[in-house]
Design goal:
- The chain is built from three helices and seven strands; from the N terminus they run βαβββαβαββ.
- By secondary structure, the protein is of the alpha+beta class.
- The chain has one domain (about 1-155): 3-Layer(aba) Sandwich (Aminopeptidase).
- It is globular and about 40 Å long.
- The chain has a seven-stranded mixed beta sheet, with helices on both faces.
- About 25% of the residues lie in helices and about 30% in strands.
- β4 (about 85-90), α2 and β5 (about 115-120) form a beta-alpha-beta unit.
Length: about 160
Protein backbone atom coordinates (compact mmCIF):
# COMPACT_ATOMS: atom_id res chain seq x y z
CA UNK A 1 0.00 0.00 0.00
CA UNK A 2 1.41 3.37 -1.03
CA UNK A 3 1.77 6.07 1.59
CA UNK A 4 3.43 9.40 2.21
CA UNK A 5 5.55 10.01 5.29
CA UNK A 6 6.56 13.54 6.18
CA UNK A 7 10.33 14.01 6.37
CA UNK A 8 11.42 14.96 9.88
CA UNK A 9 14.66 16.66 10.96
CA UNK A 10 16.00 13.27 12.10
CA UNK A 11 15.60 12.12 8.46
CA UNK A 12 17.88 14.82 7.02
CA UNK A 13 20.75 12.47 6.11
CA UNK A 14 18.45 9.98 4.41
CA UNK A 15 16.77 12.71 2.35
CA UNK A 16 20.19 14.18 1.48
CA UNK A 17 21.48 10.80 0.29
CA UNK A 18 18.49 9.89 -1.88
CA UNK A 19 18.28 13.43 -3.25
CA UNK A 20 21.92 13.15 -4.33
CA UNK A 21 21.09 9.98 -6.27
CA UNK A 22 18.15 11.77 -7.87
CA UNK A 23 20.32 14.77 -8.78
CA UNK A 24 22.83 12.40 -10.36
CA UNK A 25 20.02 10.89 -12.44
CA UNK A 26 18.97 14.40 -13.51
CA UNK A 27 22.41 15.00 -15.04
CA UNK A 28 20.97 13.15 -18.05
CA UNK A 29 18.93 16.32 -18.61
CA UNK A 30 20.90 19.10 -16.91
CA UNK A 31 24.61 19.89 -16.98
CA UNK A 32 25.13 20.04 -13.21
CA UNK A 33 28.67 19.24 -12.07
CA UNK A 34 29.66 17.56 -8.81
CA UNK A 35 31.54 19.52 -6.21
CA UNK A 36 34.95 18.53 -4.83
CA UNK A 37 33.24 16.09 -2.41
CA UNK A 38 31.30 14.31 -5.15
CA UNK A 39 27.97 15.97 -4.28
CA UNK A 40 25.55 17.91 -6.41
CA UNK A 41 24.61 21.41 -5.29
CA UNK A 42 21.07 21.85 -3.96
CA UNK A 43 20.88 25.37 -2.59
CA UNK A 44 17.52 25.04 -0.86
CA UNK A 45 18.05 21.69 0.85
CA UNK A 46 18.44 23.02 4.41
CA UNK A 47 15.37 25.22 3.91
CA UNK A 48 13.22 22.08 3.97
CA UNK A 49 14.02 21.88 7.67
CA UNK A 50 13.55 25.58 8.51
CA UNK A 51 11.00 27.03 6.05
CA UNK A 52 7.49 26.02 7.13
CA UNK A 53 6.23 26.63 3.59
CA UNK A 54 8.36 23.78 2.27
CA UNK A 55 7.30 20.14 2.61
CA UNK A 56 9.19 16.92 1.96
CA UNK A 57 7.78 13.41 1.90
CA UNK A 58 9.18 9.94 1.65
CA UNK A 59 7.12 7.64 -0.52
CA UNK A 60 6.66 4.11 0.77
CA UNK A 61 5.07 1.01 -0.67
CA UNK A 62 4.23 -0.88 2.51
CA UNK A 63 7.53 -0.53 4.42
CA UNK A 64 9.79 -0.14 1.38
CA UNK A 65 11.11 3.32 0.55
CA UNK A 66 10.27 3.86 -3.12
CA UNK A 67 10.81 7.58 -3.69
CA UNK A 68 10.40 11.10 -2.38
CA UNK A 69 8.71 14.40 -3.13
CA UNK A 70 9.67 17.95 -2.19
CA UNK A 71 7.15 20.81 -2.37
CA UNK A 72 7.53 24.55 -2.06
CA UNK A 73 5.34 27.60 -2.83
CA UNK A 74 7.88 29.38 -5.03
CA UNK A 75 7.00 30.00 -8.67
CA UNK A 76 8.98 29.24 -11.79
CA UNK A 77 6.80 31.60 -13.86
CA UNK A 78 6.28 34.63 -11.62
CA UNK A 79 2.90 33.43 -10.40
CA UNK A 80 1.72 32.88 -6.85
CA UNK A 81 1.19 29.11 -6.48
CA UNK A 82 0.25 27.41 -3.27
CA UNK A 83 2.55 24.53 -4.24
CA UNK A 84 5.32 23.78 -6.69
CA UNK A 85 6.62 20.26 -7.14
CA UNK A 86 10.27 21.06 -6.51
CA UNK A 87 11.53 17.47 -6.73
CA UNK A 88 9.84 14.14 -7.31
CA UNK A 89 11.07 10.67 -8.05
CA UNK A 90 10.11 7.07 -7.84
CA UNK A 91 13.28 4.97 -7.67
CA UNK A 92 14.05 3.09 -10.91
CA UNK A 93 13.29 -0.37 -9.47
CA UNK A 94 9.71 0.73 -8.74
CA UNK A 95 8.87 2.54 -11.96
CA UNK A 96 6.25 1.37 -14.45
CA UNK A 97 4.05 0.07 -11.64
CA UNK A 98 1.73 3.12 -11.52
CA UNK A 99 3.22 4.19 -8.19
CA UNK A 100 3.96 7.68 -9.53
CA UNK A 101 0.43 8.22 -10.83
CA UNK A 102 -1.13 7.04 -7.59
CA UNK A 103 1.19 8.91 -5.24
CA UNK A 104 0.98 12.19 -7.17
CA UNK A 105 -2.81 11.99 -6.97
CA UNK A 106 -2.44 11.51 -3.21
CA UNK A 107 -0.17 14.56 -2.98
CA UNK A 108 -2.53 16.73 -5.03
CA UNK A 109 -5.51 15.62 -2.90
CA UNK A 110 -3.57 16.32 0.30
CA UNK A 111 -2.56 19.80 -0.90
CA UNK A 112 -5.42 21.37 -2.88
CA UNK A 113 -4.88 24.74 -4.49
CA UNK A 114 -2.80 26.42 -7.20
CA UNK A 115 0.05 24.26 -8.45
CA UNK A 116 3.09 24.42 -10.71
CA UNK A 117 5.01 21.43 -11.99
CA UNK A 118 8.13 21.86 -14.13
CA UNK A 119 9.73 19.21 -16.30
CA UNK A 120 12.50 18.95 -18.86
CA UNK A 121 11.25 18.20 -22.38
CA UNK A 122 14.06 15.65 -22.81
CA UNK A 123 12.75 13.70 -19.81
CA UNK A 124 10.08 11.78 -21.72
CA UNK A 125 8.95 9.79 -18.66
CA UNK A 126 8.40 12.93 -16.58
CA UNK A 127 6.66 14.71 -19.43
CA UNK A 128 4.24 11.81 -19.86
CA UNK A 129 3.65 11.48 -16.11
CA UNK A 130 2.96 15.14 -15.46
CA UNK A 131 0.77 15.67 -18.50
CA UNK A 132 -1.26 12.55 -17.66
CA UNK A 133 -1.71 13.38 -13.98
CA UNK A 134 -2.69 17.02 -14.42
CA UNK A 135 -4.84 16.65 -17.58
CA UNK A 136 -8.10 16.56 -15.55
CA UNK A 137 -7.25 20.00 -14.12
CA UNK A 138 -6.92 21.74 -17.50
CA UNK A 139 -3.35 22.95 -17.03
CA UNK A 140 -1.83 25.96 -18.72
CA UNK A 141 1.50 25.21 -20.38
CA UNK A 142 4.34 27.71 -20.00
CA UNK A 143 7.61 27.25 -21.86
CA UNK A 144 10.54 28.66 -19.91
CA UNK A 145 12.89 27.90 -22.78
CA UNK A 146 13.31 25.18 -25.42
CA UNK A 147 13.92 22.53 -22.76
CA UNK A 148 11.71 23.36 -19.77
CA UNK A 149 7.94 23.44 -19.45
CA UNK A 150 5.84 24.45 -16.47
CA UNK A 151 2.27 23.26 -16.04
CA UNK A 152 0.10 25.51 -13.89
CA UNK A 153 -3.30 24.37 -12.66
CA UNK A 154 -5.67 24.36 -9.73
CA UNK A 155 -6.89 21.34 -7.80
CA UNK A 156 -10.23 21.44 -5.98
CA UNK A 157 -10.68 21.12 -2.24
CA UNK A 158 -12.01 17.67 -1.43
Amino acid sequence: MLRLQAVQPKDRDLLWNINQKYLYEMTSFYDDPMDENGNYHYGYFDDYFTDLKRKAYFIYNDDVLTGFAMLCPYSNIDQNPDYTMAEFTIFPAFRRKHFALDIVKMILDKHPGKWEIKYNEKNIGAKKLWNTVVAPYGPEEHHLNEEETVLSFKTPCI
